[in-house]
Amino acid sequence: MEVPPPPGRRARKRQQTRDTLIATAAALFDLHGYDAVTMEQIAAHADVAKRTLYNHFPTKDAVLADWLEAQLARDLADLQPRIAARRGFRARIDTLLDASAAWCERHPARLRAYLQHRMMNAGAAAGPGSGGPMDAWRLLIARGQDTGELDPALCVERLATAFHHLYFGAMLRWLDGPEPSLRDEFRAITDLFLDGARAPGEVRKPAH
């Protein structure tokens, strides 16, 4: 397999600028709160022209999205030993969702802005290997199929996408009114994902 060449000087410089902008914005969000920070402040504190900032990020929400998704990938990597130590699909996904709920409950303003950004850019779905929640759903679902907890005849990608929509829906409902808790919302979507919406006693008919 051919190893791709390292990025050139121009690409490295662009990535360094992008990283500086994200780090500066994150520090300002922590200091002043997300809603109070402006794009002008981010540019000024990063010591770049406003045009440079807008060349990298069209909106403040886009800066937040890049920062949050990188943070999420790191958090998911840190969670992997805890998740792997749990037995069964339900216990593993509950571990991940509990950690997600804890972060969301600490940062509701950032969560709302991120979800709005994602809904405006719905076509930019994360592919395999991105390190985001879709990768986590794919992995846990595949493990559940290997152990016989989930139907191995079903497409992993389709199941992961369905759970991803349930996950985002739970967060949106919670933001509209934080009762029940986000953990309870996540428990409810996992129940729905595992048990479906059939009435008790109904027998599932095979699809044709």
TrEMBL record:
Domain HTH tetR-type: 15-75
Domain of life of the native organism: Bacteria
InterPro entries registered for this protein in UniProt: DNA-bd_HTH_TetR-type_CS, Homeodomain-like_sf, HTH-type_TetR-like_transc_reg, HTH_TetR, Tet_transcr_reg_TetR-rel_C_sf
UniProt entry tagged with the keyword DNA-binding: yes
Sorted UniProt keywords: DNA-binding, Transcription, Transcription regulation
DNA-binding region: 38-57
Keyword hit for Phosphoprotein: no
Gene3D superfamilies with a match to the protein in the record: Tetracycline Repressor, domain 2 (1.10.357.10)
Protein name: TetR/AcrR family transcriptional regulator
